[in-house]
Design brief:
Blueprint: H1 2-51, E1 74-82, E2 85-92, E3 98-106, E4 113-126, E5 132-134, E6 138-140, E7 146-150, E8 177-179, E9 183-187, E10 190-191, E11 195-197, E12 202-205, E13 210-211, E14 215-216, E15 234-235, E16 243-245, E17 248-250, E18 252-254, E19 264-268, H2 270-273, E20 277-280, E21 285-290, E22 298-301, E23 310-315, E24 319-322, E25 327-329, E26 336-340, E27 346-349, E28 354-368, E29 378-389, E30 394-398, H3 401-404, E31 407-417
Parallel strand pairs: 5-8, 5-29, 6-9, 6-29, 7-10, 7-30, 8-11, 9-12, 10-13, 11-14, 15-19, 18-20, 19-21, 20-22, 21-23, 22-25, 23-26, 24-27, 25-28, 26-28, 27-28, 28-29, 29-30
Antiparallel strand pairs: 1-2, 2-3, 3-4, 4-31, 16-17
Length: about 425
């Protein structure tokens, strides 16, 4: 009887130990299986970082950071070791690109490694996807503040490519306003669009306020700091005798050209542009880096009666101010792009100052006041730290910026395991 009982207990013990061993093997395999997916995802993250070096992103060098290529239509592979695993990732030469990442993981309890592969497709997203966006608060005060939209590329939604002043039926209700983490105080403004709120944002509306598109709570965008191009900058030289056109004297002039020019990079001390005007002629493509606070009188882009000139304006000084009747006139919002660096903390439009273009300055407080009787105050789009609009001010979003404007970078559109 003793021998029988001992044999039974021995059999049970062997069975129990085998069960524990089998369970440990299954758990180890499951953990390794999950770990191989995590390493593949790490490869995808590195590829997305390679495709999104920072804002703005006019050109992305996929071969940078030792990726090399393209070879057979692929950049990479780039391989990394992650703990007990590793990944190897490549980026296709397509537009938009596709990412292929293979992750492997090993476990001491297993005799081999496990491998999983991901295929991630991407799309390029617009830097200006709404009319007005801010990281923090947006405050509309006073009466007569209005937002709406139009499309400069659509003759049915514009007036010769410009905001349809004389054709109200061509205006649209996509004058959207968005905040990542502040209060959008609509007050008594008329928002012909949607309020987009981030995770910690909120909204408030006065008795006479109006929002045509309601409120959405899914705005989750990261506004990267501006990266100034690394290139050979040349000092801009003022004219000894200013150029006078349509009653305006221009001190800094890039004259009309019969054929499109290559991009030209110039620097300018902010004091040189104070109370002075800048003219960028048709077919000119100028990038200007301003190193100090400035308050220009008039910035004209595109020459007389054309919209073929382009000015990219990097503001590295603390403040940029337009006051009184001073204007930025580019005829089309695509022609003037303002980028504020981390040093740019204030943008102010005062009185009847008007602006046609785009503003991307995520560290700047944007203040717009006055507006007078004009309904052509701001045409384009803006992304800033905060916004304050007072008085009778109108903000018109050009929807063409979502398609033809600068890009924010690539985001994943599909995520599939192969």
């Amino acid at each position: 009887m003793t021998l029988v009982m001992a044999s039974l207990f021995g059999m049970f013990l062997i069975y129990y130990l085998n069960l524990i061993r089998s369970q440990a093997t299954l758990v180890g395999r499951s953990q390794t299986w999950n770990a191989s997916l995590a390493t593949a995802e790490a490869g995808v993250e590195e590829a997305l970082a390679q495709l999104n070096p920072g804002a703005p992103a006019p050109f992305i060098d996929r071969a940078a950071n030792n990726w090399g290529g393209p070879v057979n239509g692929l950049y990479g592979p780039v391989s990394r070791v992650c703990g007990n695993g590793s990944y190897s990732v490549v980026i296709s030469n397509d537009t938009p690109p596709t990412i292929y990442s293979t992750g492997t993981a090993s476990n001491a309890a297993l005799s081999g490694t496990l491998t999983r592969m991901l295929r991630v497709t991407t799309t390029n997203t617009a830097l200006f996807s709404v009319g007005m966006a801010a990281k923090e608060s947006i405050n509309f005060t006073g009466n007569g503040v209005t937002t709406d939209s139009f499309n400069s590329a659509d003759p049915n939604l514009s007036e010769n490519g410009m905001y349809p002043l004389d054709y109200p039926s061509r205006r649209s209700t996509n004058g959207d306003v968005a905040s990542i983490g502040g209060l959008i105080n609509v007050g008594n403004a008329n928002v012909n669009g949607t309020l987009y709120l981030g995770p910690t944002a909120s909204d408030n509306m006065g008795a006479n306020g109006y929002i045509s598109g309601g409120v959405s709570n899914d705005f989750n965008v990261e506004f990267e700091d501006v990266i100034v191009p690394q290139t050979n900058w040349v000092s801009a030289v003022p004219l000894s005798t200013p150029l006078t056109t349509n009653g305006v004297s221009y001190k800094y002039v890039f004259p009309d050209s019969p054929v499109p020019t290559a991009v030209q990079y110039y620097t300018l001390d902010g004091s040189g542009l104070n109370n002075q005007s800048l003219y960028v002629g048709s077919n000119q493509h100028v990038t200007l880096l301003v190193a100090a606070s400035t308050s220009p009188v008039n910035i004209r882009v595109g020459g007389a009666g054309t919209n073929s000139g382009q000015l990219t304006f990097y503001m590295d000084g603390p403040s940029f101010t337009l006051s009184g009747t001073n204007i930025v006139d580019s005829l089309n919002a695509l022609n003037f792009t303002y980028y504020g660096t981390t040093n740019n903390t204030q943008i102010s439009f005062k009185g009847n100052a008007s602006f046609t273009g785009t503003i991307y300055a995520p560290e700047a407080d944007f203040k717009m006041g006055g507006g007078g009787s004009s309904i052509y105050d701001f045409v384009g789009s803006s992304v800033t730290k905060s916004v304050t609009m007072t008085g009778h001010y109108n903000f018109h979003f050009d929807e063409n910026l979502m398609k033809a404007g600068p890009m924010r970078g690539y985001v994943a559109t599909s995520w599939r395991e192969l």
